[in-house]
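Try it yourself: sequence plus S-adenosylmethionine, in.
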Amino acid sequence: MDATIVPKMQKHYPVLLKEIISVISPQHGGTFIDCTFGQGGYTKKILDFNNTKVIALDRDIESEKIANQLKENFEDRFIFKNIKFSQLTNLKLKNENIRGIIFDLGYSYTQIKDPQKGLSFDANGKLNMQLGLNTFSAEDAINKLDEKELEKIFKFFGDEKEAKYIARNISKERSKYKIDTKSLVEIIDKSKKRKNFKVHNATKVFQALRIFVNKEISELIFGLINAAKVLKKGGILGVVTFHSLEDKIVKYFFKSLSENKSISRYSPILEQADTLFNLTQKKPIIPSDYEVTKNPPSRSAKFRYAIKKTDFYNFDTDVEEQFRNYIEIENYGDKL
Ligand SMILES: C[S@@+](CC[C@H](N)C(=O)[O-])C[C@H]1O[C@@H](n2cnc3c(N)ncnc32)[C@H](O)[C@@H]1O
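Structure, out:
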């Protein structure tokens, strides 16, 4: 869990690029959906192959600038939409031969450097954490949610052992003044009995707030479900995660849909497969030592993928029920 410290590197590196391209095989052509366009690292590589098309999404409107430059060269093969990936099925995709859908979760180097986004502990940054298309900020959450709700956010999304004391101290302090990035870091520092000298004291709380503000768990769950719907038979669904909760969800989704009968036996299609996915690679693919040296934040990346066995659109999954408590915590934000 590195998250919120501004990395010392100076440039954006697309994580596991070589490995992902080798898995999705764009050399065979087809349409690919890059659900997290960012700086366009994956999209550009896919477009290098002539018979491909990319539909790219990003919730951050800043990505549109890079997308517009790319459109100048690939007008007929590249589309960008400023939407959240949970909204994937709102796109008109019926006639697209979707061969691959990729998610590279989290945020980019450019975003963490931006003080307006306030993703880091930098005292000059706003207590914001909105990646785009949000309805409230981290400042709203910290200053308005109940103490018990804050505790759950820190505990479940940050695995913060001292969630209770931190939430209690936030609740005390905010009755005296409005909490900003600087004061939040100070409150966390004072509340932590167990100091960690390897990572910043505020790392876990900041990660938890970012997940909460961007509803990252709900986004991932509904993004995966919708991606699995629109993918064509033989197509690849691939996800790069950066922390254990994300990875747990992706692992569960792929495992359950490759082991459990997820397709109704009343399906109208004859000789229908009864599981949705083929999971040829059970273990995640991780970056090489060379990549980690070049790009240290890549060290926590894990890439998992599965191959869709059928064109079937409606399938059964209990992923939402399995992770319901996380979705319920994210829904505290609805009242803000
Ligand atoms: C790690 S970066 C992707 C970097 C990209 N693969 C590249 O090579 O340039 C993650 C991107 O996903 C976007 N993002 C995060 N959650 C999203 C969501 N729910 N819907 C759409 N975009 C999202 C962020 O705004 C960010 O630009």
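One thing you can check immediately is this: Strands lie at 30-34, 52-57, 78-81, 98-104, 236-241, 277-278, 302-308.
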